[in-house]
Specification:
binds S-adenosylmethionine, Rossmann fold
Protein backbone atom coordinates (compact mmCIF):
# COMPACT_ATOMS: atom_id res chain seq x y z
CA UNK A 1 0.00 0.00 0.00
CA UNK A 2 1.03 3.62 -0.37
CA UNK A 3 0.82 3.95 3.43
CA UNK A 4 4.54 4.58 3.81
CA UNK A 5 4.45 7.81 1.80
CA UNK A 6 4.18 10.09 4.82
CA UNK A 7 4.76 13.66 3.75
CA UNK A 8 2.97 16.50 1.98
CA UNK A 9 3.13 14.88 -1.49
CA UNK A 10 1.07 11.88 -0.40
CA UNK A 11 -1.77 11.10 -2.81
CA UNK A 12 -5.01 9.52 -1.74
CA UNK A 13 -6.07 6.37 -3.59
CA UNK A 14 -9.72 5.51 -4.07
CA UNK A 15 -10.93 2.42 -2.23
CA UNK A 16 -10.59 0.31 -5.38
CA UNK A 17 -7.07 1.57 -6.01
CA UNK A 18 -6.13 0.87 -2.42
CA UNK A 19 -7.55 -2.65 -2.68
CA UNK A 20 -5.43 -3.26 -5.78
CA UNK A 21 -2.29 -2.04 -4.00
CA UNK A 22 -3.05 -4.23 -1.00
CA UNK A 23 -3.59 -7.22 -3.25
CA UNK A 24 -0.27 -6.58 -5.02
CA UNK A 25 1.52 -6.34 -1.71
CA UNK A 26 -0.04 -9.62 -0.52
CA UNK A 27 1.01 -11.27 -3.76
CA UNK A 28 4.59 -10.10 -3.21
CA UNK A 29 4.53 -11.33 0.37
CA UNK A 30 3.21 -14.69 -0.84
CA UNK A 31 5.87 -15.13 -3.52
CA UNK A 32 8.78 -13.90 -1.39
CA UNK A 33 7.81 -16.02 1.61
CA UNK A 34 5.72 -19.08 0.78
CA UNK A 35 6.77 -19.72 -2.81
CA UNK A 36 10.42 -18.84 -2.10
CA UNK A 37 10.50 -21.28 0.82
CA UNK A 38 8.88 -23.96 -1.34
CA UNK A 39 11.48 -23.38 -4.06
CA UNK A 40 14.29 -23.81 -1.51
CA UNK A 41 12.75 -27.09 -0.34
CA UNK A 42 12.60 -28.39 -3.93
CA UNK A 43 16.25 -27.38 -4.30
CA UNK A 44 17.39 -29.05 -1.06
CA UNK A 45 15.40 -32.25 -1.51
CA UNK A 46 15.58 -32.79 -5.23
CA UNK A 47 17.66 -30.44 -7.37
CA UNK A 48 20.87 -30.38 -5.35
CA UNK A 49 20.94 -34.18 -4.66
CA UNK A 50 20.32 -34.85 -8.40
CA UNK A 51 23.11 -32.45 -9.31
CA UNK A 52 25.44 -34.16 -6.85
CA UNK A 53 24.62 -37.59 -8.25
CA UNK A 54 25.46 -36.44 -11.78
CA UNK A 55 28.57 -34.40 -10.97
CA UNK A 56 29.94 -35.92 -7.75
CA UNK A 57 29.93 -32.45 -6.20
CA UNK A 58 27.49 -29.69 -5.18
CA UNK A 59 26.86 -26.63 -7.40
CA UNK A 60 29.75 -24.24 -6.97
CA UNK A 61 28.05 -20.89 -7.62
CA UNK A 62 24.80 -19.03 -8.33
CA UNK A 63 24.78 -19.67 -12.11
CA UNK A 64 25.08 -23.43 -11.55
CA UNK A 65 22.19 -23.36 -9.09
CA UNK A 66 20.17 -21.27 -11.56
CA UNK A 67 20.85 -23.72 -14.41
CA UNK A 68 19.95 -26.73 -12.27
CA UNK A 69 16.72 -25.17 -10.99
CA UNK A 70 15.49 -23.45 -14.14
CA UNK A 71 13.26 -26.23 -15.44
CA UNK A 72 11.50 -26.85 -12.13
CA UNK A 73 7.82 -25.93 -12.14
CA UNK A 74 8.13 -24.08 -8.85
CA UNK A 75 10.99 -21.93 -10.17
CA UNK A 76 8.85 -20.96 -13.18
CA UNK A 77 5.89 -20.26 -10.92
CA UNK A 78 8.05 -18.15 -8.58
CA UNK A 79 9.59 -16.19 -11.47
CA UNK A 80 6.35 -15.54 -13.25
CA UNK A 81 4.53 -14.35 -10.10
CA UNK A 82 7.48 -12.19 -9.11
CA UNK A 83 7.64 -10.51 -12.53
CA UNK A 84 3.92 -9.86 -12.49
CA UNK A 85 3.96 -8.57 -8.92
CA UNK A 86 6.88 -6.27 -9.76
CA UNK A 87 4.99 -4.74 -12.68
CA UNK A 88 1.85 -4.49 -10.58
CA UNK A 89 3.66 -2.64 -7.75
CA UNK A 90 4.10 0.30 -10.14
CA UNK A 91 0.93 -0.16 -12.16
CA UNK A 92 -1.20 -0.29 -9.02
CA UNK A 93 -0.27 3.31 -8.15
CA UNK A 94 -0.42 4.85 -11.64
CA UNK A 95 -4.19 5.59 -11.72
CA UNK A 96 -3.92 7.50 -8.42
CA UNK A 97 -0.91 9.44 -9.70
CA UNK A 98 -2.62 10.24 -13.02
CA UNK A 99 -5.66 11.61 -11.20
CA UNK A 100 -3.39 13.79 -9.04
CA UNK A 101 -0.91 14.71 -11.78
CA UNK A 102 -1.46 18.48 -11.83
CA UNK A 103 -2.11 18.85 -8.11
CA UNK A 104 1.09 16.97 -7.20
CA UNK A 105 3.21 19.06 -9.55
CA UNK A 106 1.67 22.28 -8.20
CA UNK A 107 2.23 21.17 -4.61
CA UNK A 108 5.85 20.22 -5.29
CA UNK A 109 6.52 23.61 -6.86
CA UNK A 110 4.99 25.41 -3.88
CA UNK A 111 7.05 23.33 -1.43
CA UNK A 112 10.21 24.03 -3.43
CA UNK A 113 9.56 27.79 -3.18
CA UNK A 114 8.67 27.73 0.51
CA UNK A 115 11.40 28.35 3.07
CA UNK A 116 9.03 28.03 6.02
CA UNK A 117 10.39 24.74 7.39
CA UNK A 118 13.76 24.18 5.68
CA UNK A 119 16.35 25.92 3.53
CA UNK A 120 17.26 23.22 1.03
CA UNK A 121 18.04 23.87 -2.62
CA UNK A 122 17.71 22.26 -6.02
CA UNK A 123 20.07 22.53 -8.97
CA UNK A 124 18.75 21.10 -12.24
CA UNK A 125 21.10 21.29 -15.21
CA UNK A 126 19.07 21.84 -18.43
CA UNK A 127 21.93 20.66 -20.64
CA UNK A 128 22.67 17.56 -18.55
CA UNK A 129 22.88 14.36 -20.55
CA UNK A 130 21.36 11.46 -18.63
CA UNK A 131 23.68 8.41 -18.99
CA UNK A 132 22.39 5.90 -21.53
CA UNK A 133 22.28 3.17 -18.86
CA UNK A 134 19.54 5.17 -17.09
CA UNK A 135 17.82 6.89 -20.04
CA UNK A 136 17.60 3.74 -22.15
CA UNK A 137 16.03 1.49 -19.54
CA UNK A 138 12.84 1.06 -17.52
CA UNK A 139 15.00 -0.22 -14.70
CA UNK A 140 13.39 -2.83 -12.40
CA UNK A 141 10.31 -2.67 -14.64
CA UNK A 142 9.35 0.85 -13.54
CA UNK A 143 7.48 2.35 -16.52
CA UNK A 144 9.30 5.45 -17.79
CA UNK A 145 12.42 4.90 -15.67
CA UNK A 146 13.95 7.70 -13.61
CA UNK A 147 14.21 10.43 -16.22
CA UNK A 148 10.97 10.64 -18.26
CA UNK A 149 9.33 14.08 -18.06
CA UNK A 150 5.61 14.41 -18.77
CA UNK A 151 5.40 18.19 -18.42
CA UNK A 152 7.62 21.13 -17.53
CA UNK A 153 9.30 20.79 -14.10
CA UNK A 154 7.62 17.42 -13.69
CA UNK A 155 7.92 15.28 -10.51
CA UNK A 156 5.84 12.32 -11.70
CA UNK A 157 8.61 9.72 -11.95
CA UNK A 158 9.63 10.66 -8.40
CA UNK A 159 6.06 10.13 -7.24
CA UNK A 160 5.92 6.83 -9.13
CA UNK A 161 9.08 5.61 -7.41
CA UNK A 162 7.95 6.73 -3.93
CA UNK A 163 4.47 5.20 -4.18
CA UNK A 164 5.57 2.12 -6.15
CA UNK A 165 8.32 1.34 -3.66
CA UNK A 166 5.83 1.75 -0.84
CA UNK A 167 3.81 -1.12 -2.32
CA UNK A 168 6.91 -3.10 -3.34
CA UNK A 169 8.61 -3.01 0.08
CA UNK A 170 5.75 -4.55 2.12
CA UNK A 171 6.60 -2.38 5.14
CA UNK A 172 10.22 -3.58 5.29
CA UNK A 173 11.61 -0.21 4.21
CA UNK A 174 10.27 1.45 7.36
CA UNK A 175 7.86 4.19 8.34
CA UNK A 176 8.96 6.68 5.68
CA UNK A 177 10.74 4.20 3.38
CA UNK A 178 13.86 5.33 5.19
CA UNK A 179 14.88 2.27 7.19
CA UNK A 180 18.21 1.85 5.40
CA UNK A 181 19.32 5.42 6.14
CA UNK A 182 17.87 5.36 9.65
CA UNK A 183 19.46 2.01 10.57
CA UNK A 184 22.89 2.71 9.11
CA UNK A 185 23.15 6.28 10.43
CA UNK A 186 22.20 5.00 13.90
CA UNK A 187 24.91 2.32 13.65
CA UNK A 188 27.63 4.72 12.45
CA UNK A 189 26.82 7.52 14.90
CA UNK A 190 26.83 5.06 17.83
CA UNK A 191 29.93 3.15 16.76
CA UNK A 192 31.91 6.31 15.98
CA UNK A 193 30.70 8.92 18.50
CA UNK A 194 33.65 11.24 17.71
CA UNK A 195 32.91 11.26 13.97
CA UNK A 196 30.97 14.48 13.33
CA UNK A 197 30.78 14.96 9.56
CA UNK A 198 30.40 18.61 8.56
CA UNK A 199 29.53 17.83 4.90
CA UNK A 200 27.75 14.70 3.72
CA UNK A 201 27.02 13.61 0.13
CA UNK A 202 24.47 10.97 -0.92
CA UNK A 203 24.97 9.43 -4.39
CA UNK A 204 21.99 8.26 -6.49
CA UNK A 205 19.48 9.61 -3.98
CA UNK A 206 16.29 9.25 -6.14
CA UNK A 207 13.61 10.83 -3.90
CA UNK A 208 15.95 11.38 -0.94
CA UNK A 209 14.19 8.96 1.42
CA UNK A 210 17.53 7.59 2.65
CA UNK A 211 19.23 11.01 2.52
CA UNK A 212 16.99 12.70 5.09
CA UNK A 213 17.97 10.29 7.94
CA UNK A 214 21.56 11.59 7.70
CA UNK A 215 20.30 15.16 8.14
CA UNK A 216 18.36 13.93 11.19
CA UNK A 217 21.32 12.04 12.69
CA UNK A 218 23.81 14.86 12.05
CA UNK A 219 21.73 18.05 12.37
CA UNK A 220 24.83 20.27 12.13
CA UNK A 221 26.00 18.74 8.86
CA UNK A 222 25.49 20.31 5.43
CA UNK A 223 23.82 17.53 3.45
CA UNK A 224 24.04 17.25 -0.35
CA UNK A 225 22.60 14.63 -2.67
CA UNK A 226 23.01 13.92 -6.39
CA UNK A 227 21.10 11.96 -8.96
CA UNK A 228 20.84 11.97 -12.75
CA UNK A 229 17.01 11.93 -12.86
CA UNK A 230 15.44 15.41 -12.67
CA UNK A 231 11.87 14.33 -11.73
CA UNK A 232 13.14 12.40 -8.70
CA UNK A 233 15.34 15.30 -7.62
CA UNK A 234 12.48 17.83 -7.80
CA UNK A 235 10.31 15.47 -5.80
CA UNK A 236 13.15 14.81 -3.31
CA UNK A 237 13.62 18.54 -2.76
CA UNK A 238 9.91 19.15 -2.17
CA UNK A 239 9.73 16.08 0.08
CA UNK A 240 12.68 17.18 2.24
CA UNK A 241 11.30 20.73 2.48
CA UNK A 242 7.94 19.37 3.62
CA UNK A 243 9.67 17.26 6.27
CA UNK A 244 11.60 20.30 7.48
CA UNK A 245 15.03 18.91 6.54
CA UNK A 246 17.56 21.03 4.71
CA UNK A 247 19.18 19.08 1.88
CA UNK A 248 20.85 20.43 -1.27
CA UNK A 249 19.99 18.40 -4.36
CA UNK A 250 22.01 18.48 -7.60
CA UNK A 251 21.55 16.91 -11.01
CA UNK A 252 24.96 15.37 -11.56
CA UNK A 253 26.42 12.00 -12.37
CA UNK A 254 28.23 10.38 -9.47
CA UNK A 255 30.83 9.33 -12.04
CA UNK A 256 31.92 12.94 -12.65
CA UNK A 257 31.06 15.36 -9.87
CA UNK A 258 31.62 19.12 -9.87
CA UNK A 259 32.50 19.42 -6.15
CA UNK A 260 36.02 20.36 -5.10
CA UNK A 261 38.68 17.89 -3.98
CA UNK A 262 38.52 16.97 -0.28
CA UNK A 263 35.26 18.84 0.25
CA UNK A 264 33.24 16.12 2.05
CA UNK A 265 33.61 14.21 5.34
CA UNK A 266 31.28 11.46 4.33
CA UNK A 267 29.99 9.94 1.09
CA UNK A 268 27.07 7.56 1.25
CA UNK A 269 24.94 5.62 -1.20
CA UNK A 270 22.20 3.05 -0.90
CA UNK A 271 20.87 0.59 -3.47
CA UNK A 272 22.77 2.62 -6.05
CA UNK A 273 25.90 0.81 -7.25
CA UNK A 274 24.08 -2.20 -8.71
CA UNK A 275 22.36 0.10 -11.22
CA UNK A 276 25.68 1.37 -12.62
CA UNK A 277 27.85 -0.52 -15.16
CA UNK A 278 31.19 -1.87 -13.85
CA UNK A 279 33.35 0.86 -15.41
CA UNK A 280 31.01 3.50 -13.99
CA UNK A 281 31.30 1.98 -10.49
CA UNK A 282 35.06 2.40 -10.63
CA UNK A 283 34.59 6.06 -11.64
CA UNK A 284 32.23 6.53 -8.66
CA UNK A 285 34.87 5.14 -6.28
CA UNK A 286 37.59 7.33 -7.80
CA UNK A 287 35.36 10.38 -7.37
CA UNK A 288 34.53 9.38 -3.79
CA UNK A 289 38.23 9.15 -2.99
CA UNK A 290 38.91 12.53 -4.62
CA UNK A 291 36.06 14.27 -2.78
CA UNK A 292 36.74 12.92 0.71
CA UNK A 293 38.85 14.79 3.20
CA UNK A 294 41.60 12.69 4.83
CA UNK A 295 39.89 10.77 7.64
CA UNK A 296 36.59 10.89 5.75
CA UNK A 297 34.20 7.97 5.37
CA UNK A 298 32.89 6.32 2.20
CA UNK A 299 29.94 4.03 2.92
CA UNK A 300 27.80 2.11 0.44
CA UNK A 301 24.71 0.12 1.36
CA UNK A 302 24.18 -2.63 -1.19
CA UNK A 303 23.29 -6.26 -1.65
CA UNK A 304 26.02 -8.53 -0.36
CA UNK A 305 28.56 -9.54 -3.00
CA UNK A 306 28.58 -13.10 -4.31
CA UNK A 307 31.94 -13.98 -2.75
CA UNK A 308 30.26 -13.75 0.69
CA UNK A 309 27.31 -16.02 -0.03
CA UNK A 310 26.45 -19.68 -0.37
CA UNK A 311 25.69 -20.65 -4.02
CA UNK A 312 21.93 -20.85 -3.39
CA UNK A 313 21.79 -17.38 -1.80
CA UNK A 314 23.86 -15.98 -4.68
CA UNK A 315 21.39 -17.46 -7.14
CA UNK A 316 18.47 -16.09 -5.12
CA UNK A 317 19.74 -12.51 -5.10
CA UNK A 318 20.97 -12.67 -8.72
CA UNK A 319 17.45 -13.50 -9.92
CA UNK A 320 16.87 -9.78 -10.57
CA UNK A 321 19.74 -9.62 -13.04
CA UNK A 322 17.99 -12.14 -15.29
CA UNK A 323 14.31 -11.36 -14.85
CA UNK A 324 13.83 -7.88 -13.38
CA UNK A 325 15.54 -5.56 -15.92
CA UNK A 326 18.59 -4.99 -13.76
CA UNK A 327 21.33 -5.61 -16.35
CA UNK A 328 24.26 -4.44 -14.18
CA UNK A 329 23.15 -6.13 -11.00
CA UNK A 330 25.10 -9.36 -11.34
CA UNK A 331 28.29 -7.67 -12.52
CA UNK A 332 28.22 -5.56 -9.37
CA UNK A 333 27.56 -8.58 -7.16
CA UNK A 334 30.45 -10.45 -8.78
CA UNK A 335 32.85 -7.65 -7.83
CA UNK A 336 35.21 -7.88 -4.92
CA UNK A 337 34.30 -4.87 -2.77
CA UNK A 338 37.72 -4.58 -1.15
CA UNK A 339 39.52 -4.67 -4.48
CA UNK A 340 37.31 -1.90 -5.91
CA UNK A 341 37.98 0.30 -2.87
CA UNK A 342 41.73 -0.25 -2.85
CA UNK A 343 42.04 0.30 -6.61
CA UNK A 344 40.42 3.70 -6.07
CA UNK A 345 43.15 4.60 -3.57
CA UNK A 346 41.71 3.56 -0.20
CA UNK A 347 44.14 1.65 2.06
CA UNK A 348 43.53 -2.11 2.35
CA UNK A 349 43.42 -1.86 6.13
CA UNK A 350 40.81 0.93 5.90
CA UNK A 351 38.23 -1.34 4.27
CA UNK A 352 35.26 -2.63 6.29
CA UNK A 353 31.90 -4.24 5.84
CA UNK A 354 29.01 -4.41 8.28
CA UNK A 355 25.81 -6.43 8.45
CA UNK A 356 23.22 -4.49 10.43
CA UNK A 357 19.75 -5.61 11.56
CA UNK A 358 16.94 -3.43 10.25
CA UNK A 359 15.99 -0.87 12.92
CA UNK A 360 12.35 -0.93 11.86
CA UNK A 361 12.11 -4.70 12.10
CA UNK A 362 14.35 -5.51 15.10
CA UNK A 363 14.39 -2.20 17.02
CA UNK A 364 17.11 0.22 18.07
CA UNK A 365 18.69 -2.05 20.72
CA UNK A 366 19.42 -4.71 18.12
CA UNK A 367 21.22 -2.15 15.94
CA UNK A 368 23.35 -0.99 18.87
CA UNK A 369 24.09 -4.57 19.97
CA UNK A 370 25.19 -5.47 16.45
CA UNK A 371 28.12 -3.06 16.81
CA UNK A 372 29.90 -5.56 19.06
CA UNK A 373 28.53 -8.56 17.31
CA UNK A 374 29.91 -8.35 13.77
CA UNK A 375 30.83 -11.86 12.63
CA UNK A 376 31.22 -10.58 9.09
CA UNK A 377 29.23 -13.57 7.85
CA UNK A 378 26.37 -12.96 5.46
CA UNK A 379 23.45 -15.37 5.58
CA UNK A 380 20.13 -15.91 3.83
CA UNK A 381 18.62 -12.84 5.54
CA UNK A 382 21.36 -10.46 4.40
CA UNK A 383 19.91 -8.15 1.81
CA UNK A 384 16.91 -10.39 1.23
CA UNK A 385 13.62 -8.52 1.31
CA UNK A 386 11.71 -10.62 3.81
CA UNK A 387 11.07 -10.78 7.53
CA UNK A 388 14.29 -10.58 9.52
CA UNK A 389 16.20 -8.52 6.97
CA UNK A 390 19.75 -7.36 7.67
CA UNK A 391 21.32 -4.55 5.67
CA UNK A 392 24.77 -5.00 4.18
CA UNK A 393 27.13 -2.07 3.78
CA UNK A 394 30.78 -1.66 3.01
CA UNK A 395 33.30 1.07 2.45
CA UNK A 396 36.56 2.56 3.65
CA UNK A 397 38.02 5.42 5.64
CA UNK A 398 40.32 7.70 3.71
C1 LIG B 1 17.57 2.21 -6.94
S1 LIG B 1 17.76 3.93 -7.02
C2 LIG B 1 18.50 4.29 -5.44
C3 LIG B 1 17.52 4.78 -4.47
C4 LIG B 1 17.95 5.33 -3.17
N1 LIG B 1 19.31 5.74 -3.04
C5 LIG B 1 17.57 4.39 -2.05
O1 LIG B 1 18.16 4.50 -1.00
O2 LIG B 1 16.67 3.56 -2.22
C6 LIG B 1 19.13 4.26 -8.06
C7 LIG B 1 19.27 5.73 -8.41
O3 LIG B 1 20.56 5.96 -8.96
C8 LIG B 1 20.44 6.96 -9.95
N2 LIG B 1 21.61 6.91 -10.80
C9 LIG B 1 21.95 5.98 -11.73
N3 LIG B 1 23.14 6.28 -12.28
C10 LIG B 1 23.58 7.40 -11.66
C11 LIG B 1 24.75 8.17 -11.76
N4 LIG B 1 25.72 7.88 -12.60
N5 LIG B 1 24.88 9.26 -10.95
C12 LIG B 1 23.91 9.59 -10.07
N6 LIG B 1 22.77 8.89 -9.94
C13 LIG B 1 22.60 7.82 -10.72
C14 LIG B 1 19.12 6.64 -10.63
O4 LIG B 1 18.64 7.76 -11.35
C15 LIG B 1 18.27 6.25 -9.41
O5 LIG B 1 17.60 7.36 -8.92
Amino acid sequence: MTDYVRHALKVKPTQDEYARQTFTQSMRTYVLHDVANGMKTVYDRKVEPDFEKRNARKPKDGPEVHKALKDETLFKFYSSIRCNAQEMAFRSVIPTLERNFEATNRKAQALARSTEKAAGSLEINPSFEVPHYVAGLDVHLMPGGYDTEHTRDDVTQGALYDNGISVFSMGLFGDELDDIGTTISKFISTKYPDFEPARILDLGCTVGHNTVPWARTYPNAEVHAVDVGAPGLRYAHARAQSLGKTVHFHQQSAEHLSFEDESFDMIFSSMFLHEVPGKGIRNVFNESHRLLKPGGLMLHMELPTNDMLEPYDSFYLDWDAYYNKEPFYKAFRDMNAKEVCTTAGFGKEKFFHYIIPSLGFFGEDAVVKSIDNQSGQADENTGRLSDGINWFCFGAWK
